[in-house]
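INTERNAL TRANSFER SHEET
From: sequence group
To: structure group
Subject: Fimbrial chaperone

Please process the attached sequence and return the structure record in the designated field. Keep the field labels unchanged so the import script can parse them.
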Amino acid sequence: MRQYRLLSPMIKVVIVLFPLLFSTAQAGLVIGGTRFAYPENQSSISVELKNTSDRDMLVKVAVSPDDARHLTGTVESLPSFSGTVFIATPPLFVLKPDKNTKIRINRVGGGLPADRESLFILNVAALPTLENSHSVKTDNQLQIAVRNRMKIFYRPSNLSEDPNMSYQKLRWARKNEIVTVYNPGPRYVTLYNLHVDGKVIDGGMVAPFSHRQQSWCKSQGVCEIAWQFIIMLYLHGK
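Return from structure group:
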């Protein structure tokens, strides 16, 4: 555990580091990761999917620009992208029970910034078949599509610093109840498992070269902020 007292004597920031490699599984569909790196010098990356259920699954995949759902409070505006930047293939397919496959993400356009990461969302929706595909559908039969959202970080080749050290660049300041966190670096930083004075808060992320402001603290007294930085094994399968 490391403790930092940054920019203000009235705010105490505690950071816990630990390695973690995420995968996600919902309703029988296992996706080989929750975040993926797309290096500029690669023509494509792949993402592995597995159907662990006993039914066929209709799977739909698409890549969309970041919609800033992970950013709350007062946030600087993010770069916008026109046109299609990434495509996922195949976009629609059936995945048989106990089978796995790979989808491929290709960059097809977009003038992305060369001095920072750009964030995109991989959307995966899976619709399992009915238990008896030959039965007549009745009003009390319901099919629910399971939707997953994974992060894709586009990384320009000239970003040489270790992404797992990006948390060290964050700077914190406080004025009354308002906390401002500054990210002067070129990479996104996730405030995972954030606690403010012992209370769990949805921390989200801090975008490159930007800052966020949140009404996290009480107006008086020392405010303690604790969060975890995940030393991620970012996936960029070939």
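Handover comment: DSSP finds no helices and 21 strands in the chain. Residues 1-238 form a domain with the Immunoglobulin-like fold (CATH 2.60.40.10).
Transfer complete.
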